[in-house]
Amino acid sequence: MNMVNVKINGMPLSVPADYTILQAAKSAGIDIPTLCYLKDLNEIGACRMCVVEVKGARSLVAACVYPVNEGMEVYTNTPKVIESRKMTLEMLLSVHNKACLTCKRSNNCELQTLCQELGVEDSTSYEGAMPDSTYDDSTYHLVRDNSKCILCRRCVAACANQHVAVIGPNSRGFDTHIGCMFEQPLANVPCVSCGQCIVACPTGALTEKDQCADVLAALNDPEKYVVVQTAPSIRATLGECFGMPVGTNVEGKMVAALRRIGFQKVFDTDFGADLTIMEEAHEFIERVKNGGTLPMITSCSPGWVKFCEHYFPELLPNVSSCKSPQQMTGAMIKTWFAQKEGIDPSKIVVVSIMPCTAKKFEIHRDDMEGAGEGIADTDIVLTTRELARLIKLCRIDFNTLPDEAFDPAMGESTGAAVIFGSTGGVMEAALRTAADTLEGRSVESIEYQEVRGGAGIKEAVYKIAGMDVKVAVVSGLNNANEVLTKVKNGEGGYHFIEIMCCPGGCVNGGGQPIQPSSVRNFTDLRAARAQALYTQDANMPLRKSHENPLIQKAYEEFLGEPGGHKAHELLHTTYVPRSRY
């Protein structure tokens, strides 16, 4: 590796020649503030918060894009640098909605944090006109409040990185603002509800549509029987909202917190994940044996499904007809569980805790009423962030809670279900069951390492029952577009494809905890979160979905057989082509 010698604040360093000043400083334990910069996503040097002095340079330079060179001398905290940063903050505040006390990002807002650190309390030096702002709450999943936008363009970059690119800077000069084409509301453009723009936003300009009040209203309605289900990845991320290290598994405390909030049953969506594998593996085997449409593509990511409906409607026959684990669990709660407990399904409220803002859209799709017309499989979706707010609102001391277990009615699951939260997890879980079924025996080698890891596109060929099965695992919609274009052109030769909307899968979903850029730019959040899930999988006594005794009981007592009439009626769905505008 090529190295260069530099000095930062008088301290000599040897750093890789391809580093920026920002990276070099971080390697020395010096955090240079940023507002627009996100590594590999938005590296444009626009906000000017990261300016530093470089000996010999005519002006301050943006550390996030300025490369190091041999003998460079950098100063990160001179009076000139600090004054420049303070002036930038004051100018941003002069056109900013400063209602911090009621903002969902208060205490997790990068603009607020920098103002506190630099002692910037107001913007009286630059008082004047305020730009017109837009408030858009037209979608199920998101609220956009441009009065809190600082034009960092992170959201624009995140949306472009998801291929859809439905937002961008409109107008010019003082009137510049982020919006959709022709100022359309977000609901009128082919947004896929992934929420990656929310995670990228440094302020409260973009937030998920909060439904905590709806949950509390249901909990306080004596006519309602309120149950909750939690997705596989939530246990690996919720702890971050309470100051725990990234990748801490807080399953037991999460269950305890939900019970104390007042839910009558706390269920694990991992049950639905195991159920999904039973149906999906059966569907794949049927397609292979009977000349069905291949490659079959997974359907548990609602953002990806909506993307397919908008951008690749001709490939909808390739998409598995299986509902997502969230919807399967909801359908089983309102049918099997309701029947066993003698509860009117119309009185049951199913709340799901998801890593994904697209899940808020998914529950409103057609063909999601397994228990009967007008009875939705799932009623309310909260993101990981909303759950953290609800726990704090209910004054629950999360960090001191004991570890408790899910309720047994739908609380038993396998390692295969746990790894759904990471890219490649659905594929690996499906292969574990498909291999056993096709081989007619229990296959001992069940860790499919080739489909693990953070790469956006992974391919592998596995020999199963004498057949070469070619698979692909894709996360992020730019990568999905690349692979689907190959499929559309008759290329690739795939049999089975897993697609996750968000880069890295659910552990990096649009509803997950928002880490500041100072952490996000230098920490592999996806890998740390995913490792918590793979560790749990490795330590579980059952690691194949078809070995789950509760799943076996569900089929024996209620569903019949995988892919059978009742299973298809409750656990499968349909898709519709959607126009882009």
Automatic annotation (TrEMBL):
Q: Where in the cell is it found?
A: Membrane
* Residues of the 2Fe-2S ferredoxin-type domain: 2-80
Annotated GO biological process? ATP synthesis coupled electron transport
List, alphabetically, the PROSITE patterns matched: 2FE2S_FER_2 (PS51085), 4FE4S_FER_1 (PS00198), 4FE4S_FER_2 (PS51379), 4FE4S_HC3 (PS51839), COMPLEX1_75K_1 (PS00641)
Residue ranges of domain 4Fe-4S ferredoxin-type in the record: 140-169, 183-211
Pfam entry (one): Fer4_7
Q: Which cofactor does it need?
A: [4Fe-4S] cluster; [2Fe-2S] cluster
Q: What is its main location?
A: membrane
Q: Which UniProt keywords apply?
A: 2Fe-2S, 4Fe-4S, Iron, Iron-sulfur, Membrane, Metal-binding, NAD, Repeat, Translocase
Instruction: Give the signal peptide, or none.
Output: none
Tell me which GO cellular component terms the UniProt record holds.
Answer: membrane
The chain positions of domain 4Fe-4S His(Cys)3-ligated-type read: 80-119
- Can you tell me which family this protein belongs to? Belongs to the complex I 75 kDa subunit family.
Protein's UniProt name: Iron hydrogenase small subunit
